[in-house]
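Supplementary notes (optional reading)

For those who missed the lab, this is the record we used. Protein: Phospholipid-transporting ATPase. Length: 1167 residues.
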Amino acid sequence: MDFSSIRKFITRWCAGEENWVDTRTVYIGNKEPPPGAEAYIPQRYPDNRIISSKLIIDTPTSPITSGLPLFFVITVTAIKQGYEDWLRHKADNAINQCPVHEVQHGKVIRKQSRKLRVGDVVLIKEDETFPCDLILLSTSREDGTCFVTTASLDGESSHKTYYAVQDTKAFITEEDFDTLQASIECEQPQPDLYKFVGRINIYSDRNEPIARPLGSENLLLRGATLKNTQHIYAVAIYTGMETKMALNYQSKSQKRSAVEKSMNAYLIVYLCILISKALINTVLKYVWQADPDKDEPFYNQKTDTERQRHILIRAFTDFLAFMVLFNYIIPVSMYVTVEMQKFLGSYFIMWDDEMFDEELGERAQVNTSDLNEELGQVEYVFTDKTGTLTENNMEFIECCVDGYVYVPDAICNGQVMPGSTSMDMIDSSPGPWGKESEELFFRALCLCHTVQVKEEETVDGIKIGIHQNKATSFYISSSPDEVALVEGMKRLGFTYLRLKDSHMEILNREDEVERFELLEVLTFDSVRRRMSVIVRSTTGEYYLFCKGADSSIFPRVISGKVEQVKARVEHNAVEGLRTLCVAYRKLSVAQYEETCHLLNSAKLALQDRDRKLAEAYDLIEKDFVLLGATAVEDRLQDKAADTIESLQKAGMKVWVLTGDKMETAAATCYASKLFRRSTQILELTTKRTEEQSLHDVLFDLSKTVLRQHGSMTRDTFSGLSADCVDYGLIIDGATLSAVLKPSQEDSSQGNYKEIFLEICRNCSAVLCCRMAPLQKAQIVKLIKSSPEHPITLAIGDGANDVSMILEAHVGIGIMGKEGRQAARNSDYAIPKFKHLKKMLLVHGHYYYIRISELVQYFFYKNVAFIFPQFLYQFFCGFSQQPLYDTAYLTLYNISFTSLPILLFSLIEQHINMDILKKDPSLYRDIAKNSLLRWPIFIYWTFLGVFDAIVFFFGSYFLFNNSTFTSNGQMFGNWTFGTLVFTVLVFTVTLKLALDTHYWTWINHFVIWGSLLFFVIFSLLWGGIIWPFLNYQRMYYVFIQMLSSGPAWLSIILLIVTSLLPDVVKKVVCRALWPTTTERIQNADKLYNGQLSEFTPLASLHAPTRRRADHQNPIPRRSEHFTKKLMFTHWRSGPDYCTFTPLLRFAGNSRHSGAGYAQNGAGPETSV
């Protein structure tokens, strides 16, 4: 239940606000404004206390069960959650009692963080963490800037620049702030870390206050750290649980796996069975008691009052008694075991050395263990391109100025590669006018950016950049593209030096320093896809420089060599390079003043500031003169192509969602083997919809994909199946918006979602380019809500991927170079994209197999446990007499049968992991929750009922009218129940042993140890007179039973009879209708676990027609020559798959992995 609205109401009521408003007014230093300035309305805000402990203990169990098992489950859960909450409370106290320095009455005083109030002015020193959200007033630096790291918020370790308010940056002492009178009007707290709208009113001797805009560049977030700045003064704006960091504490929406949904459905079935059992026994009891001779005997000690109660009350009481008697059919302990299995099993991902990246020094992380088994059910994979499929390691390739191409040698992320000593220029000299245009282009790239220059001693005390005992500088930016471009310009002769006193300095080719005053920065956003700066040269000329995507620059250009630059941009995009266009515009003084007025009006707005800024930017960024374009390459990650190919062979559909332009993204898709040479590309883009209506384009594509195989979707085929043509779809963001938005004019043609889904289901791969972050989430949600309800996985590395990661069933973040927001918001985090292969094909496969067996086994053993109790009521007059002793009822699920299945669910490996990696098609055997379908569940249930009937009636008929002891005594009811329970425990444990394929000493110890524990416990329980018990009905029962030869014979006979049908069924099915998994298991036993080395796995599959489309992908500039040699060797080598396993074994070939590669996941999958 969501209590957010109630909590918000209470918060507003406690704040004393009858009418909630969208803004707040903060008085700096909590001082009243001057008389007559404005009405002073004191406001109450929460203190700076952080509370993350819940103080409430919830339990995942149902109150249906009774007795000690329920008490045990609740107690363990309460202790676990209570301990975790105590740790949170302890951490809260440590934070709330942290000392801070506040400026009061011209002095600095020390106080606890929790006592900080909104409006207090605080002093923060270098390397200190901000105690709350602050507005920066002044710094120790002359230019009023400070450097901050937000690693604790978003994982970005780069230094970000924040700016003090221009009218307060001169306040540098505590006494100065004692004279400051100002107020801040801003929006109410919201969780968006990167958005802030406000303004500050500074009161002076004049009547009208001075108003200045406040934005995210002035807001210092709680948890960030001050770096490379001696100290700052700032005012508290949001405190306590209203800080942006605290508002982001709210947990993400709960994700539930398909296995959990199946468990809940099965639980409802068993609950109905429980009610049916209780109802049947209640009715039969009163039918049986209708005969006066069969009424309850006197020794049941029923009082006359109880006998004379109304029959409905007695019936209801008996119904509840039967519910308690049969409640053990509900596997409460299963939920505890499942939680333990998920929690402990998640460590296998974190301990996996193959998923450790030495370059980053990072291992895979598990942020939630609730979705482990969902990794084995993925049907759609949605992946980002930049930083996910590629390295996000930008290399400046070339720039084009007025059609002339310049290629500096190997500039890679600011590092000049070894052996690079010159600069090449393609084509001829540009000429005198071209020389001026060329230098203007280089100046534009040196000025239009947000790059910071760091000296060697400025990075956290670590000296970086020393070269030949000379202090050098290097560039830092939140965007790797900008660093590559600035370093490329440095290589071409124009060096960006620094930003000092609002002046940007660059060093030209003649070693002359040029200064440009930075007047305005029009920041980049994903909607505009461009950024601009307005600068003034020393000669007084105003320039507006702009760089951005070609689609956002070309429509705003009025002159320049557009066709030549556009041709070069398209050429580079086809080669997979990231392109940016550069343009400029000269501004007159009047135009600049008009621009300043537009920007200031938009910045001062408290309502709809983003919209007004966007409108202002749109009016300012126009009438450009095109200068040229740049090309930067983002290298493909290691084994990215192999991973995608393996996922497709596993039956998954891979979609690439990127903000890049279509040509660049398509080239990356070809290089990563998402598209192949034989893939027929279908385009659903703006260019095509301009020529035809969207309705006609969609129906044409639908006819094309359905012509091959009618209305059958490709969900039944592998992505690489040879039985049908491969189709690849390319769609852009604008067309997607039109598809998802229903038309108001013609509802019959307006909703194209179904047609679009039909096309996508029949495509082996889909590329979505020019996508906004919200559109990525919309695509994922569209596929999730389709009629098939497939399991989706989203993987990305940047903040723009968080929305789709949260939307997908399973979200995976990559620890990339765009910060850690994706990794922090994901369910799992991996260092590189290539690790996704093992996470899904091996870990996901194992997790699903294990937990499926665990769930089915729990229901099976509980049916076998409680059904004899149901049958026993027919022989005891429906008197609620238990068949088993209380100790056996209590310990059956807790001790006797829980540990073997828990261990099985942690270490079982039905197939060697090397085989799972080499043969991705095995993943399809467990797709669509195949092991937890209703037929399999019914089989396990009926198997449990059959075993229960064998236990009960086998013991009943074998011992009917028979004497068993040497003195002629007959067994009583407790001996009979003990005999049934003994057969039960041995049967269900041996059933698990028969299902185990991966035997270790731990399996032997736990399985045989649990049986031994049951025997020892029974001997002690029945061999000693326990003084704390009111009864001694089990005394000597177990020992007396074991002293009888017929009892031993009956135990063995009943165990064999119970297990025989399941064994026969498995043998027959393996012999006549073996699955691919069973074929591989048999072959692996034949080769003593060495199948992955000596046997071609393709020979174990059903024969299929080979696909002959192993063409080379599009060559990339960054392809290493050694990789081409390896590929050539693989192509020209002998086809080991044509050899028999014995020949390969005799030859002891070490190239068996290469032989498999043609049928597996590529040449890089050999082990």
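If you only remember one thing from this example: Residues 397 and 1018 are 78 Å apart (CA to CA).
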